[in-house]
Amino acid sequence: MYLHGTSTINSRNHLEIGGADTVDIAREFGTPVYVYDTALIRERALGFKRAFEEAGISYQVAYASKAFSCIAMVQLADELGLSLDVVSSGEMITAKRADFPMERVHFHGNNKSSDEIDYALELGIGCFVVDNFYELSLLQEKASSRKQKVNILIRTTPGVEAHTHEYISTGQEDSKFGFDLSSGQADQAIEMLQADEYLHLRGVHSHIGSQIFDTDGFVLTVEKLFQEFQRWHELYDFIPEVFNAGGGFGIRYVEGDEPLAPEQYVRDLISAIKREAENTGIDVPEIWIEPGRSISGDAGTTLYTVGSKKDIPGVRRYLAVDGGMTDNIRPALYQAEYEGILANRAQEETSETFSIAGKCCESGDMLIWNLPLPEVESEDVLAVFCTGAYGYSMANNYNRIARPPVVFVEDGEVDLVVQGETLEDLLKNDLPLPSRAKA
What we know:
Blueprint: E1 8-9, E2 15-17, E3 20-21, H1 22-29, E4 33-37, H2 38-55, E5 59-64, H3 71-79, E6 83-86, H4 89-97, E7 105-107, H5 114-123, E8 127-130, H6 133-146, E9 150-157, E10 179-180, H7 185-194, E11 199-206, H8 216-236, E12 242-244, H9 262-280, E13 286-289, H10 293-296, E14 300-312, E15 316-321, H11 330-334, E16 340-342, E17 352-357, E18 366-373, E19 381-385, E20 406-410, E21 413-418, H12 423-427
Parallel strand pairs: 4-20, 5-6, 5-13, 6-7, 7-8, 8-9, 9-10, 9-11, 11-12, 12-13, 15-17
Antiparallel strand pairs: 1-2, 2-3, 4-14, 14-15, 14-19, 16-19, 17-18, 20-21
């Protein structure tokens, strides 16, 4: 049994997180419920920051809010001195409602709409990470008409493929994201920006993938981009003030996952940048990173209540819970793997292997295959670990199932930070068919 963060087993043989009994949480808030260990979020975020500060490097650690966004999470990010990576108007208005400093917000996305760009300009977003020529043209037009200075990074695809699942690799040349280096797209974008009166090109962004367990890809990306920096200095008199290495730092989901400590990713990145800066004669830029999963991922645990069982002799034992792909679609999307235990009988010896099924009307709604557990009874509470990234943020209402609540736990205190949806919430946007008089 691998326990994350402050998780422990208490004297009642219950799983405890942040000093709070998860069985009590399940009773109070119902299930499914997402439980976040805020002490672990703090530890992960401060680990990234500490490595930069020990190296004496100018930096920003921007929490990638797509991993998990709500007002309380954004407030916590602000409290921790993080910047914020947003990709939509919804994430921007969340930051606004949380009173997050807009100068520390970075706006991403491969298809920013005209309205989203207007909203970001109105809010005074600190930096646009420009993804393509369509967006660049829109920004040029809008910044000029508003006579508003706008800070820009251009997102590049350096041709580096992370050692990860193909669905979440984004640094290769054939990608929907960014300006390609080899075709000259990045050169063209830099030339356009250097001539623009209102758009200030601060630097370059690159993101090579997600759930990465080593730093080889980051180092190779640094080497490739510094070669370009040297060439762009000669051609366009451009020297980057900022190098944004993106995110993608992995976490431990299951046995066999061996991520580095947050500090090690940063140290290796800084070492590579310093080396290439010396080799090329270019000053070390301010370094930005965008961890999301590696801040919130293993801090989240989802609690479920066990319902039905189905035994197929000699084949498989299915165990159904009261959630599934509506609160965690990752297993159905890309065969993501998880570990879990019975929260109410946490240290009981495992005697059987069960496959954990969700309640949706889809055969692919399976949360975990072949999970060792004690003999399970209906109404037991199942805790599934490491659901803090892309669980709540990708939750949906398939089969008209309501989204679960979210609680933060720390020092024995349990705070409801997102209310669970009600049946009425599911209907609030529905309109009845208009009645029309028949001839």
